[in-house]
Every structure is written in structure tokens, then in C-alpha cells.
Amino acid sequence: MVWRVVRPRIGREPPSSLPVIVLDPGHGGGDPGAIGPGGTYEKHVNLAIALAVAQILAGPTLPVLTRRTDTAMSLAERAGLANTRRATVFLSIHANGSEHPHASGTETFHYPGSIRGAALASLVQQRLVAIIGRVDRGVKAADFHVLRETHCPATLAEVAFLTNPEEARLLTDPRFQRRAGAALARAIVDYLRRR
Ligand SMILES: [Zn+2]
Fold first, then answer.
1. Residue numbers annotated as active site
2. Distance (Å, rounded) from C-alpha 92 to C-alpha 98?
């Protein structure tokens, strides 16, 4: 005899069952991050991209932003939010800075020795390079606070260089910000499927 388990039909899963994706726009408040040649602050670029990611991921996941406005937040608070919300994925979003204006391209970080972090970072880097088409600077390991102190797989993306005049123009363009956001959202969906 075969017993079939019949599950009650429910239209939507309760929100608590959705994977929580903590999106962390770097810097904020009195910390502008990198500053572009036109005086653009990295903190604003990071927030615009993070909001684009959140818009795409709302529905299949539960996106949670560490900040939704231009507010200061410590690194410990950012990692702490991911841990108290029991995040499935933590993604910190940055734009790069260099004293050399010709420095350009995309790079993504994970905590040294984190296998799941490296897998996540690699998907983020692949999708970003494929969709925004900047130079591939590779996936790198770094002992960053937000990567070390988060309990879930965590990655930090440096989308492009705000100190490079060409990339600064792109980073401040809302269409480019949405494309970068779409690439990051796609990478997270890829990661959730492959887990
Ligand atoms: Zn930054």
C-alpha cells in the first residue's frame, strides 16, 4: 500500500520561509567612501545599486537592506543585522577607488577559506563582468570585517572604479546602476539554486 502525503494547498508560502538576502550598501552618513572626479560619493552609488537589487529580489526572496537612506552604520552593525535576521546570503556593494585614475574593472571578495563564500563571490563576479562588461579583475580573498563576522555565505562586490572617469560616468548613470543591480540579483538567484 502506498500512502501519499497530501500537502494543504496554499497560494503563497509564508514570508518567513523565504531566503533572507541582506544587501549592504557600503559607507553612508559621514563616510562617503571613494569620491569620483565629478565629486560623486561612493555611498550614493552603492545605495542606488542596492535598491535596484532589492527591487528585483523582492518576491522570490526577502531582501533586507542594512541602510535605505544616507545614514552612518558601523561594520559590526551591518554584520550583526545579517546574523540576527539569519540571512541566507550577505552581499556588500561598493564602488572601487584608486589614486591611479586609469585603474578600472570589477572585483569581488570572499573571506579566506570560505568555500561557500568563494562560490557566491565567483557567481557575482561572473554575472557582473558578463552584464556590465568591465575588466575582470578576478575573485579575491580578503579579511574584511563584514565577510569575517557574518555567519552566512558573504561576498563584497567592487562593481567598478569611481575614481576612473569613464567608470564614474557609468556608475552615476541610473541605467548602469539598474544593470549592475540586475547582475547582482541574478548571481544571488544562481547561488540559491545551486546550494
Ligand atoms: Zn567602498
1. 158
2. 19
